[in-house]
Design brief:
Jelly Rolls; mainly beta; four-stranded antiparallel sheet; 9 strands
């Protein structure tokens, strides 16, 4: 697992992953263990599409290098019919090989998540 030198990049590809959070943890963005890439996460947006009820969301980051999973946000309330910007370009983060961004909600199929990222190699 060697992260590429991001000073001498060969390719930067823009990506957006979208998912609906379930009541159990599901992967949203996965950087494969032998990808030879670094992912720069630029934006993470949560959207509650229920018209009447607020629901909680938790997003986690598994760090393969450290061998631990930590919360990015924990049981953060997303109001009914509202969006919440968890991360934007001013607070971007990097995912190395083997890292996984995952999440779940207090109720299945109530919160969508959109993640914009750059795949750097």
């Amino acid at each position: 697992m060697a992260a590429p030198n991001i000073v001498n990049v060969a390719t930067i590809k823009g990506n957006t992953n979208v998912a609906t959070l379930g009541a159990t943890t599901g992967n949203i963005v996965t950087n494969a263990a032998s990808s030879g890439k670094v992912f720069k996460i630029n934006t993470v947006i949560l959207a509650n599409f229920d018209g009447t009820t607020a629901y909680d969301a938790t997003l986690t980051l598994y760090s393969a290098r450290a061998g631990v999973t930590k919360n990015l946000v924990s049981t953060i309330s997303v109001p009914a019919d509202a969006s919440l910007v968890v991360l934007d370009k001013t607070t971007a983060m990097y995912m190395e090989e083997g890292d996984i961004l995952a999440g779940f909600a207090s109720a299945a199929s109530k919160i969508d998540v959109a993640v914009s990222f750059e795949e750097i190699s």
